[in-house]
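Predict the 3D structure for this chain.
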Amino acid sequence: MITLFLIMAFFCIYTYAVFPAVMYLLAKCKPIVESVQPSSWPSVSVVVALHNEERNLYKKYNNLKLLDYPRDQLEIVLVSDGSTDGTWSALQQIASADTRIVAHHYDQAAGKPSALNIAVEKATGEFIVFMDARQSVSANAVKTLVSYLQDPKIGAVSGELVLGSPDMAVATDAKNVGLYWRYEKWIRESESRWYSTTGATGALYAIRRSDYQPHAVDVLLDDFDTPVKLLKQGKRTVFAAEAKVFDVAEASSNNEFKRKVRTLAGNYQSFSRQMWLFNPAKNPVWWQFLSHKVFRLLVPYAMLIALIASVLGEGSFLHVMLLLQLLFYCLGLLAFLTKSSNSLLNFIKVFLQLNAAAVLGAFRFITGRASVRWKKS
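Done. Predicted structure below.
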């Protein structure tokens, strides 16, 4: 039982600590990915899929007007996927005042992947920049993404998601969500420098229009589906921290939990449809794909096996390990039951939520409960 416990414990430690550290050290041996400013800026289509986004639309449009990119080379394609509020009316009003706007609406909501397919079909730019409606982006975002895509070996460029809460009174959970994203950024920067990340920031990433492959109508993670299709063609996805997309971190960790469940259910779907990713002969980032994406989904089961091994095993070592595990889970329960601002308690809380989301995401995928239906933002 001691051997089983040690294997499971090391698996968890490897996934969350050893792999990121090794990835960081390996990446330092590689040159930093450089952007190249073109002699003349190419045509770009900013694509945004919308569903009942009337309250965010004008703010998004005002943000897009601040983009530092030649006006005559920038097209904005806004597709309303079955919106039932005032989104379409607002779109028509905006389009009538700005010739760069391509607005489209259809009555029956089909989901984000269908909206993206239609938007790209209507786009005319050489490059496509995907954005979401809720978030704002930095003024340099489009220029930065396009600059990296001047390298033909790069297929997609992902911006950096910056999280923050405007309400400091309820920012405890949001701070912990932000801490998680900073951890993710650290890993993605290393993966990008080493060779390629295996996903993009859905609210801000860019590709060449010629590289776009239409999504299946039920795909859950377009920001994973597109980069891995490019990876299969031998093209990298790199992380550009200079291009920023700003979002408000969920003030409630429960809301972040729901979002994470949707994402992890999408991972299971993507893996099942892209089985070549598990083949080291075909996947150039096989090791980091397994370590970063797959192993995280298995950690909760390793934790359970480690706990069972401690309960069933004999000897003082396993007894001590059992007590430490019980203490860990009790502290997590305390964090859930209280509004403590203690960093350790909240770290444990976020960690346990992440692993619970992995289990629930698997359940939703297996039972067919994962859906492309729009969620409230």
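Confidence is low (pLDDT under 50) at residues 165-171.
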